[in-house]
Design goal:
It comes from Scophthalmus maximus (Turbot). The chain is an alpha/beta fold. The protein folds into four domains: 8-164, Flavodoxin domain (Rossmann fold, 3-Layer(aba) Sandwich), CATH 3.40.50; 246-252 and 316-440, NADPH-cytochrome p450 Reductase, Chain A, domain 3 (Up-down Bundle); 269-314 and 446-519, Translation factors (Elongation Factor Tu (Ef-tu), domain 3), CATH 2.40.30; 534-609 and 617-694, Rossmann fold, CATH 3.40.50.80. The chain contains 18 helices and 25 strands. Strands 1, 2, 3, 4, 5 and 6 form a six-stranded parallel β-sheet that branches. It has a six-stranded antiparallel β-sheet with strand order 16-14-20-12-13-17, with helices on one face. Strand 22, helix 14 (584-592) and strand 23 form a beta-alpha-beta unit. Helix 7 (378-385) packs antiparallel against helix 8 (391-401). It is globular and about 75 Å long. The termini are far apart.
Length: 696
């Protein structure tokens, strides 16, 4: 008898940092367990799928990046389906489901997913399952887990409908056996342990069935490594084990490649740090630094104010050493790493990571390739269970990756941004192979920074500003640590750092070189028409791109004194006037020379009674308060003078507060309700007159 063809569907993903790709791969893998065939493709792999002729259900998993932009590997697809020449029945044969990933801390939440869905529907496609909008601001899994749970029933329903719509067999022919599409969902592994394998409040238990026998576990409260009832006594819904797909071996071959990652690209440049200056004073504020890069030897690094660039930083050397010891591979740190696909792997779309060259050392791999500070995903935790010897620790790993343990995962892993290394340190009986880290840890990403200068004023130089990030200690992190890139940069320039009020020495210590890559931003730039007024909102280091805006404006005024220049406003805020008022002298100089017409500054932590005589006790604390005080002028510029608004800085609080303030201002000025005010701001965004450069 001929083999029965398994029902098929298509999975397409667009992913910037790998999250959407990982979900899509998980769907494809689980499909096999359910007797289905999932054809997995990235949206840029046009040769592997054809939506114009596709009859099977299609599942889209897409993320959003930047200011609501599609991921790089989905950009061409989005452009293609947005073509106005496509007819309204172009996709009338298509049925789809869509999961969109985004972050409500940023503007244009899930914008790529919404764009794809809107165009699919405009082109006639039909939805067979409700769209999911996962929010990384509160936890992607809150939407992803239930969405995936319901997806399989929806797919089977869509396939059943397709089967029933087929032409009935001719009389006399024996009908082909119809696949059983009503089979129950694959069950999760149900786990429960007796009291000896769970941590009880106020009770000591001794583990007697592992090599850690004799170690007494005492739990007085829940923690990363120990839970309390009811979780510690509950059966668990644990996800399926991710199939291993890589073979990794180490070989001592003498000399191996030690260069910095994939830095042979034409767009990546090694540039010297020309100058480093601390911009803040005192111990009560964050440490803000200005770095000046010498890019004179790289004419292709032609940037504009508003552009940003990537800094390629390594993992911290001490953490790499800890990871080598943790894996038991310290003596093999200089061995060459060989990575290949397992011959019998069951992972859909499996491939050796493209960012790992074939002749790198283990030390290089852990230093430049893998993000060992990444927060471990639940799939990684599930895989770690299989490599954990201690029963209590194994149970806790199962809890943290289970449906029932979602709150604990968020509390002890996700919210404190616990790193993979910190997590492994907390579970000493877990001994994962190197291959598991390569399969589950993401690529070490470069860190973006905004240009804080104009080449018209500083030819051959590029300035940028950053706060040295301090990450506090927590359960699972015994000691605080600095941010990966900001801490690395601080260590690089610490000995040659110039402090406020001190004269720079001409014979100061030579500063090192770093690798950077330009990220042009074609929208976050001053108006091309100099007569257009614009407003800048940039508290803290968010003021950085606006220094470039104003430097460029000043040079343009000097070159064209007869030209008409629109009104300029800057809303700046910080904690203390005498502590972290960044670029104070330069900003006040812009005002005195007429480059900046209005400088509105507020200090959130200063006591008004201690400020200069005449200070009001109701002085505004945050930039949104100053916006409200100047609401008529701001509204006039945006609503009647076709002006532009730029916001730069913190996404989680400041950008949201500023947007809410703008909604209230527009509502008051136009005498409309909140919904209409939001539509007005949305129109400004569409016209590229309300722009944001924000970060989490």
């Amino acid at each position: 008898m001929p083999c029965e063809v398994q029902p098929r569907f298509v999975v397409l993903y667009g992913s910037q940092k790998g999250q959407a790709q990982s979900i899509a791969e998980g769907i494809a893998e689980e499909a096999q367990e359910r007797g289905l065939v999932a054809e997995l493709s990235c949206l840029n792999q046009n040769e592997k799928y054809n939506l114009e002729k596709e009859k099977a259900p299609v599942v889209f998993i897409v993320s959003t990046t930047g200011d609501g932009e599609p991921p790089d590997n989905a950009l061409q697809f989005v452009k293609r389906i947005k073509q106005k020449t496509l007819s309204t029945d172009h996709y009338e044969h298509l049925c789809y489901a869509l999961l969109a990933l985004g972050d409500t801390n940023y503007a244009n939440f899930c914008n790529c997913g919404k764009t794809v869905e809107r165009r699919l529907q405009e082109l006639g496609a039909k939805q067979f399952y409700a769209t999911g909008y996962a929010d990384d601001g509160v936890g992607l899994e809150l939407v992803i887990d239930p969405w995936l749970e319901g997806l399989w029933k929806a797919i089977k329903g869509a396939l059943s409908k397709m089967a029933s719509d087929r032409i009935a067999p001719s009389r006399g022919d024996s009908p082909k056996e119809t696949p059983d599409l009503s089979a129950p969902d694959v069950e999760f592994n149900l786990l429960s342990l007796n009291g000896q394998q769970s941590c009880k409040s106020g009770r000591a238990s001794v583990d007697t069935d592992s090599k850690y026998a004799g170690v007494t576990h005492v739990a007085l409260a829940a923690s990363l490594t120990c839970s309390l009832p009811p979780l510690s006594e509950s059966p668990l819904n644990v996800p399926a084990l991710p199939p291993p797909y890589l073979d990794v071996s180490l070989q001592d071959v003498g000399t191996v490649e030690q260069i910095v990652g994939q830095l042979n690209k034409e767009s990546v440049h090694e540039v010297p740090i020309y100058r480093a200056v601390q911009l803040t004073r005192g111990d009560s504020v964050k440490t803000a630094l200005l770095l000046e890069l010498d890019i004179s030897a790289h004419p292709t690094m032609a940037y504009e104010p508003g552009d940003s660039f990537d800094v390629f930083c390594p993992n911290r050397a001490t953490e790499v050493e800890e990871m080598l010891h943790r894996l038991g591979l310290h003596d093999q740190r200089n061995h060459q790493v060989h990575i290949s696909l397992k011959k019998d792997h069951k992972k859909k779309g499996a491939q050796v990571p493209s960012y790992m060259s074939p002749n790198i050392s283990l030390l290089h791999l852990l230093t430049w390739c893998l993000e060992i500070r990444s927060v471990p995903k639940k799939a990684f935790l599930r895989a770690l269970v299989e490599h954990t010897g201690d029963g209590v620790q194994r149970r806790r790993l199962q809890e943290l990756c289970s449906k029932q343990g979602a709150a604990d995962y968020n509390l002890y892993v996700r919210d404190p941004s616990l790193s993979a290394l910190e997590f492994l340190t907390a579970f000493p009986s877990c001994s994962p192979p190197l291959s598991l880290l390569i399969e589950h840890l993401p690529k070490l990403q470069p860190r973006p920074y905004s240009a804080a200068s104009s080449t018209l004023k500083h030819p051959g130089k590029l300035h940028f500003v950053f706060n040295v990030v301090d990450i506090p200690a927590c359960n699972g992190r015994p000691a605080g640590r600095r941010g990966l890139c900001t801490g690395w940069l601080f260590d690089l320039i610490n000995r040659g750092l110039v402090f406020p009020g001190k004269v720079e020495r001409s014979g100061s210590l030579a500063l090192p070189k770093i690798h950077v890559s330009l990220r042009p931003n074609c929208s976050f730039r001053p108006p091309s028409d100099s007569s257009v007024p614009f407003i800048m909102v940039g508290p803290g280091t968010g003021v950085a791109p606006f220094i470039g805006f104003l430097q460029q404006r000043e040079e343009a005024r000097q070159e064209n004194p007869e030209a008409v220049f629109g009104e300029t406003w800057l809303f700046f805020g910080c904690r203390h006037r005498d502590g972290d008022y960044l670029f104070r002298e330069e900003l006040e100089g812009f005002v005195s020379r007429g480059v900046l017409n209005h400088l509105e500054v507020c200090f959130s932590r200063d006591d008004p009674a201690q400020e200069e005589v005449g200070a009001s006790v109701s002085r505004p604390r945050y930039v949104q308060h100053n916006l409200l005080l100047n609401s008529q002028n701001v509204a006039a510029i945006l609503l009647r003078q076709s002006g532009h608004l730029y916001v730069c800085g913190d996404a989680k609080n400041m950008a949201k507060d500023v947007n809410n303030t703008l909604v209230a201002m527009v509502s008051t000025e136009l005498q409309v309700d909140q919904l209409e005010a939001m539509k007005t701001l949305a129109k400004l965004r569409e016209e590229k007159r309300y722009l944001q450069d924000i970060w989490g």
